[in-house]
């Protein structure tokens, strides 16, 4: 006669079913987290570049956007954050002490969760909103999914974000 509780067999069956469901759900959760990180970083970079252009127009000065390292120098690799600054002395380098360049934004990047590459050392938005130099791109890929984001900055200064394939992804 049974009074209350579970039998050992019922407990084993329940744990087995829960384990199978958990194992099937983990890859989907990993994809969701990787995709969310990619979308968030892409949106953040897109908005920051748009902000740099707007600041250049509003304040009639050159505004520089770049991926910077820990020493606050623009870099094409080993960068830790996005840096926007008003280039008051027009030397294309952050020099807060000398002529008073103004830091507009310092936004940390997602570390090694994403592969981020760029073809420009820095992006200079001029007072009329155009980009000095040549058009540039920032490419974001997650090592876990096959899709990435390209952020393209045209000579007009317009910033565009699009989805691209990431051939080196390892799901």
In brief:
This protein has 171 residues and is an alpha+beta fold.
Number of helices: 1
Q: How many beta-strand segments?
A: 9
The largest sheet has its strands arranged as 3-2-1-5-6
What are the low-pLDDT stretches, counting only 5+ consecutive residues below 50?
none
Q: State Rg.
A: 23 Å
Given helix and strand content, the structural type is alpha+beta
How much strand? 25-35%
Range of helix content: 25-40%
Q: Largest sheet, described in full? A: 5 strands, antiparallel
Morphology:
elongated
Span between termini: 52 Å
SSE pattern, N- to C-terminal: HEEEEEEEEE
pLDDT averaged over residues: 86
Walk me through what this model shows.
This protein is an alpha+beta fold and 171 residues long. It has 1 helix and 9 strands; from the N terminus they run H-E-E-E-E-E-E-E-E-E. It has one helix at 8-59, and strands at 63-68, 81-86, 102-108, 115-118, 123-125, 131-132, 136-141, 147-153, 159-165. The strands form 2 sheets. The chain has a 5-stranded antiparallel β-sheet, with helices on one face. It has a 4-stranded antiparallel β-sheet with strand order 4-7-8-9, with helices on one face. Strand 7 and strand 8 form a beta hairpin. It is elongated, with a radius of gyration of 23 Å.
């Amino acid at each position: 006669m049974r009074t209350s509780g579970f039998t050992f067999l019922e407990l084993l069956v329940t744990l087995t079913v829960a384990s199978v469901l958990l194992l099937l759900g983990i890859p989907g959760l990993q994809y969701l987290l990787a995709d969310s990180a990619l979308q968030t970083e892409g949106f953040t970079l897109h908005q920051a570049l748009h902000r740099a252009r707007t600041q250049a127009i509003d304040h009639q000065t050159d505004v520089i956007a770049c991926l910077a390292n820990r020493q606050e120098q623009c870099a094409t690799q080993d960068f830790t954050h996005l840096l926007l600054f008003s280039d008051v002395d027009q030397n294309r380098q952050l020099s807060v002490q000398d002529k008073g360049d103004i830091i507009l934004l310092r936004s940390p990047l997602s570390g090694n969760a994403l592969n981020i590459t760029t073809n420009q050392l820095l992006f200079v938005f001029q007072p009329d909103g155009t980009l000095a130099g040549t058009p540039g791109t920032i490419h974001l890929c997650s090592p876990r999914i096959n899709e990435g984001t390209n952020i393209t900055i045209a000579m007009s200064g317009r910033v565009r974000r699009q989805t691209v394939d990431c051939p080196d992804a390892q799901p």
